[in-house]
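Lecture 7, part 2: worked example. A protein chain together with FE2/S2 (inorganic) cluster.
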Amino acid sequence: MKNGPAEILSNERIAEDTYEMILRTGIAREVRCGQFVQVQVPGYFLRRPISVHRVLDENTLSLIYKVVGDGTRTLSQTAAEDFLDLFGPLGNGFPVLDEDIVLIGGGVGVPPLVETAAQYRRLGRQVTAVLGFNNSSAAFGEEEFRSLGCDVIVATMDGSLGYKGTVIDAIQAAGLVPATVLACGPVPMLRAVAENYRGYISLEARMACGIGACMGCVVKTPDGGSLRVCKDGPVFRTGEVQL
Ligand SMILES: Cc1cc2nc3c(=O)[nH]c(=O)nc-3n(C[C@H](O)[C@H](O)[C@H](O)COP(=O)(O)OP(=O)(O)OC[C@H]3O[C@@H](n4cnc5c(N)ncnc54)[C@H](O)[C@@H]3O)c2cc1C
Ligand code: FES
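Predicted complex, written out as structure tokens:
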């Protein structure tokens, strides 16, 4: 785990309100797929957690983020040669299992699945990526998964790209029967994934410390216990936490 300045190499819009930022940082060499970094956005006290999208080399990684509020808007206004303070990598990422895998991503839950796909493909595993978006303007990532050698299914709620409906509808329509899924996206999507399949889900929560100290990101387990998204997660087994 490291903390320090990272140089922005690029920060480009890739879809509606969605940006890809490439950063030079030694954190890259420690990242496991599904982990995140805490980004110190200039002018804000609390850091913003963002998943690592790709490890490009041992000193370079990329993030994909959506502008949803003031912090991410400020982030979108930074530019190449600016520096950001990064802390990470943090959390427990996705397991790299010795089996073929189905990845399910919704919106800005898609980015951590790209590095995950790259790791499974490196092991020669077959990867099917099922990507869900509200509409075609919000969609990204399809070509990147294809370039890694994955099968890709895209679903949009309005039918403007790919299958019309949810990721679950698209999986069923394609006749896929996944043995294990790895999923990241909004809670309603994760709830549907956990009701239908076994595997691992990556959760989002409001965070403060990011290292398990403040209990600001606690989620409940089915037996009434609690787990911290930042330290015990963000990746949990399906059924391990209440959604
Ligand atoms: C482990 C983890 C990984 C994440 N990875 C990504 C990623 O790869 N790409 C990405 O775009 N976003 C990611 N997020 C969500 C991201 O951290 C928030 O969108 C961001 O912090 C919002 O900051 P803001 O100042 O722009 O918004 P704010 O003004 O703070 O909030 C705007 C809206 O976003 C909601 N929000 C704020 N923070 C979070 C949060 N942590 N989780 C869920 N909703 C939130 C608020 O409830 C509010 O509705 C991740 C979150 C976690 C916990
Ligand atoms: S953010 Fe502090 S314990 Fe998770």
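The mean pLDDT is 97. Residues 163 and 170 are 6 Å apart (CA to CA). Keep this in mind for problem set question 3.
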